[in-house]
Amino acid sequence: MSTREEIVTDFYGKYDEETRLERSRKGQLEYFTTMEYIHRYAGKGTKVLEVGAGTGRYSVALAKEGMDVTAVELTVSNLDILRRNAEGLTNLTSYQGDALRLDMLADDEFDVTLVFGPMYHLFEGEDVDRAIDEAIRV
């Protein structure tokens, strides 16, 4: 049986995550609605963590707006794209990591933590609880 990490990595190896939020009206609506909510709580200078950052659509946009962004992504292929998209942005740091173990990050380090992607890929209630606990911790 495959692990969650193998399943997610295999999925994103076959799926075009880079254009998901641009190629349909549904994706565009998701992006603009999500950004509207983010802007209610975050602005220039806010320390933002995006867990499950994918290819960086939100992380890169928020960094370009002047937020101090840290992105954590499970799959190396998405992380590679995120890093290409973030070239030249000195206020965006990225890590390969899992929402269940954010050991590389200190307690209470961020003003806002975004956890979108992992919630689609966590199969056990215990894992969902652990991801939320980690998001709150940091």
Give an account of the 3D structure.
This protein is an alpha/beta fold. The chain has a single domain (4-137), classed as 3-Layer(aba) Sandwich (Rossmann fold). It is 46% helix and 14% strand. The chain is globular and about 45 Å long. The relative contact order is 0.17.
Which features would summarize this protein structure in a list?
138 residues; 4 strands; Rossmann fold; 6 helices; alpha/beta; single chain
Element layout with pairings:
Elements (H helix, E strand, L loop, with lengths): L3 H11 L10 H17 L5 E5 L5 H8 L3 E6 L2 H10 L6 E5 L15 E4 L2 H4 L3 H13 L1
Parallel strand pairs: 1-2, 1-4, 2-3
**Share in β-strands:** 5-15%
Helix content estimate: 40-55%
Give me the count of strands: 4
Calculate the mean pLDDT score and round it.
Answer: 91
Low-confidence stretches: none
For the record, the CATH architecture stands as: 3-Layer(aba) Sandwich
In short:
The chain has a single domain (4-137), classed as Vaccinia Virus protein VP39 (Rossmann fold, 3-Layer(aba) Sandwich), CATH 3.40.50. Helix content is 46%, strand content 14%. It has helices at 4-14, 25-41, 57-64, 76-85, 118-121, 125-137, and strands spanning 47-51, 68-73, 92-96, 112-115.
